[in-house]
Amino acid sequence: MLDLTGKNALVTGIANNRSIAWGIAQQLHKAGANLGITYLPDERGRMETKVADLVAPLNPSLFLPCDVQNEAQIQSTFEAIAEKWERLDILIHCLAFANKDDLSGDISSTSRSGYGKALDISAYSLLQLSGAAKPLMTAGGSIVTLTYLGGVRVIPNYNVMGIAKAALEMSVRYLASEMGSQNIRVNAISAGPIRTLASSAVGGILDMIHHVEQVAPLRRTVTQTEVGNTAAFLCSDLASGITGQVIYVDAGYEIMGM
């Protein structure tokens, strides 16, 4: 019943085969979606090569550089989508960053520049990309972003990223309200801790994973594939009545008090 055949989907945030965005891209492809992939460009082109090799089996029809701190690259990304596809149906936002120094210590010691960068890349970018996608979602659409429990509860060594995720979750609600009249749905997935390139910057990530395995009702953490399955569901007609929500995919950890 979950069929995305004929849907055009842009996936951001793939860095390697541990990325949650990679799990999402695989499940969208499995459901029949036509994929466009963006990557974060670097001076030596290493990320382009790495991501291109990884996603080759998914046969993406668009493969584009997109640094969300570069307005020109955002514009060129969506111009390429308009030219190639004419219509966009799905936007997957898997982007987050904070300086490692701002993920530990006293939150009151967070630098102004570090705070601004974390909020810019991790939260404001959702507004940027959604605003650019909106004119292309002429047949309605689905926007899905990734968040974490640290946006609503204090998590050790998460600090400014928790503030950024709180902003991201509120952005989901305001975007859902804005875009609902155009049948564009906006939701977030709050995934349990998974070992990724991004999570490696969080001190004690392995301890966090082991804690979830001990406490969560399912006595384990989750996989990229499970998050990808939920994203595919949210992008399908099966979720046509769901918008403005944060869906927890964390083996039930969020419900526990201790």
TrEMBL record:
Residues that bind NAD(+): G13, S19, I20, D67, V68, L95, K165, I194, R195, T196, L197, A198
Sorted UniProt keywords: Fatty acid biosynthesis, Fatty acid metabolism, Lipid biosynthesis, Lipid metabolism, NAD, Oxidoreductase
Associated pathway: Lipid metabolism; fatty acid biosynthesis
Active site: Y148 (proton acceptor), Y158 (proton acceptor)
Cleavable signal peptide: none
Gene Ontology annotations of biological process type: fatty acid biosynthetic process
GO molecular function list: enoyl-[acyl-carrier-protein] reductase (NADH) activity
Catalysed reactions, semicolon-separated: a 2,3-saturated acyl-[ACP] + NAD(+) = a (2E)-enoyl-[ACP] + NADH + H(+)
List of residues binding substrate: A98
InterPro entries: Enoyl-ACP_Rdtase_NADH, NAD(P)-bd_dom_sf, SDR_fam
The protein's Enzyme Commission number: 1.3.1.9
Source organism superkingdom: Bacteria
Family the UniProt entry places it in: Belongs to the short-chain dehydrogenases/reductases (SDR) family. FabI subfamily.
NCBIfam families cross-referenced by the UniProt entry: PRK07370.1
Protein name: Enoyl-[acyl-carrier-protein] reductase [NADH]
Organism of this sequence: Scytonema millei VB511283
